[in-house]
Specification:
Blueprint: H1 9-21, E1 26-30, E2 36-38, H2 43-52, H3 61-72, E3 79-83, E4 89-92, H4 103-111, E5 116-118, H5 120-124, E6 133-136, H6 149-152, H7 156-171, H8 177-193, E7 197-201, H9 203-213, H10 222-225, E8 276-279, H11 288-293, E9 300-302, E10 311-312, E11 321-326, E12 331-339, E13 342-347, H12 373-383
Parallel strand pairs: 4-5, 4-6, 6-7, 7-13
Antiparallel strand pairs: 1-2, 1-3, 8-9, 8-11, 10-12, 11-12, 12-13
Helix pairs in contact: 1-2, 1-4, 1-12
Protein name: Asparagine synthetase B
Organism: Bizionia sediminis
Amino acid sequence: MDAESQKNHLKAYGITYWTLNNQVKVNWLLNYRGGSFLMPDTERIRRECQIRGVSFEVVSNAKAEAILSEIASPSKNMESVILEKAPKIAVYSPKGNLPWDDAVTMVLSYAEIPYETIYDEAVLNDALLLYDWLHLHHEDFTGQYGKFYGNYKTAAWYIEEKKTAESEALRMGFSKVSEQKLAVANKIREYVIGGGFMFAMCSATDSFDIALAADGVDICEPMFDGDPSEANYQSKLDYSRTFAFTDFILERNPNVYEFASIDMTSRRQIPKMTDYFTLMDFSAKWDPIPTMLCQNHTALVKGFMGQTTAYNRDQIKANVLVMGENKTNGEARYIHGVKGKGFFTFYGGHDPEDYTHKVGDPKTELDLYPTSPGYRLILNNVLFPAARKKKQKT
C-alpha cells in the first residue's frame, strides 16, 4: 500500500473487505509500506486482485514471518492488527437524488464494498442495532434545511425537499422537522454510546453536535419552522451533550450559509495550490486506533472545501484527538473521539478530489483518482470496526 507499488489503493480496501466477508482473517500492517495488508495466498484472492486491478506481492511463509518479526520489534513504530470480520455498513441518506454527491457512497461503490441505505424512520425504529458502522454525510440535524435558504429558497429542489421533510415529520408524529432531526440525532448518539462506530463528513459533523447541544431549545427562525426562535438561545446551549465541539457561537442569520463558529470556511486565507493538511504521527504499538485511521502512502493530504471545511481548534473538546491539521490556518481537518463504548470520526470537507464541489456539479469519477490519499482516510474508517480491539495505553 505504499506509493511506489500500489496502483489502486482504493480497490485494495475492497479486496480486504471481500476477504473478510469470506471468513478469512487479514493482518493490517500499520506503518509498514503505507499500511499494507497481509492475507493468505490463495488462487481466489489472487484472481480477485487481478480482476479489480489491485497490485499485490506473493511472499513465502519465511518472508511473512520476517515481516511480522520486524513489525514486532520495539524499535519500529509499526504494529500488526488482526482484522476479523467484515463490518455491516449503513449509510444515512434520504431517498431520491439530491443536488450533491456523497464521497463515502462513491468510494464504497468504487471499492466494491457493500452498504445499505437507511434514513430517519429506520433510525427511529432502532435499525442501527443491525449495523457496525454508520456514515453521515451532507446532512442538517438542526432542522434548517442545510442553511441553503439564502441562495436556494426559490429553487425547485429546495422547495420540494422542504415540503417532503415537513410531511414526513408529521407522518412520524413530529410537529416540526427540527424535532424529528433531534430525535434522530439522539438515536445516533445512543448508538455510538452503546458501542457503534460513526463516521461523519461535511455539515453532518457540526450540525449533529449543534442539534445535541440545542436539545429542548428552539434555534430555528420562522422560514424554517413557522415560528420565531427562542430568546437568548445561545446562552441555553448544553455543550456537555456534544461529541466533539464546545463553546461555539451559532450563526443567527438564516441567509448565511453557515451553522456556527465551529467551521473555518469563511476564515480561510489559503490558496488552492498550497492547501494541504498533515496527518499526525502516532505510536502504532501504544495508540493503534489513531494509527489505523491515519494509514496512508503520504502524510500530506490535499485540502478540499465543503459547507463545513475544517474545525476551529479552540472549539474542539480536550478529549478529542486531532489526527489531521493545517497549522498555517490553525484548523483541524480530521478528528476522532470515544463516546461511551463507541467511537466517532469527523472529517471536514465534501469531496477529497473536488476542491470546491458546488450544488449541481458532476460527481467525481474515482477511476481518475485510484490512489487518492483523501479517500483512503474514509476507507480506513470503514475497516476500523473489523479490527480485534486492544485497550489503548494512552
